[in-house]
Specification:
This protein is an alpha+beta fold and about 160 residues long. The protein is built from six helices and seven strands.
Length: about 160
């Protein structure tokens, strides 16, 4: 399976690094099956860091990864996904032992809804009803060295 990573530099050797930000699935190396989404991440990262050049790196993830690794998959926005993202966004990292977590991206379009939920202004049910019609891209968070070991770099391309 091809997955993409957008950054301000080519990432030939993925590593687990603390980002200093509270990401959807916690600390990990984030990828997506959407080239378009990776390009957006590359632009955002370059603007945020004010250095480098927007670059997408493509990886091949072993097809049998889910039989080798402990994987948590959220197929669509759900209460479980919302609560998982909320915990991490609040800075309460969950050490659940997963090697890879897969699910929808909480992006710029979803942030107003997530913020209302995180601040207690809407319920989980209301947030899910708002998020379900959106066509959210996916994200794969490789959270362990074992997960990273199943990635092979195919190519890198500056935008």
């Amino acid at each position: 399976m091809k997955l993409y990573h957008g950054s301000n530099v080519a990432v030939l050797t993925p590593r687990l690094m603390a980002s200093g930000r509270n990401l959807d699935f916690g600390k990990g190396f984030y990828l997506t099956s959407s080239l378009e989404q990776a390009e957006r991440w590359a632009d955002i990262t370059t603007r945020r860091r004010k250095t480098g050049q927007p670059t997408v790196t493509c990886y091949l993830l072993q097809d049998d990864f889910s039989s080798i690794l402990k994987v948590r998959r959220f197929r669509s926005p759900s209460k479980a996904w919302l609560n998982y993202v909320a915990q991490h966004r609040r800075g309460n990292a969950i050490d659940d032992g997963y090697d890879v977590v897969i699910g929808p991206v909480a992006n710029d379009q979803t942030m107003p809804t997530l913020t209302l939920f995180l601040d207690g202004f809407i319920t989980a049910d209301m947030a899910i009803r708002t998020l379900l019609p959106q066509k959210l891209k996916d994200q794969y968070a490789c959270k362990t060295a074992a997960a990273l070991s199943l990635l092979d770099t195919l190519w890198t391309r500056p935008l």
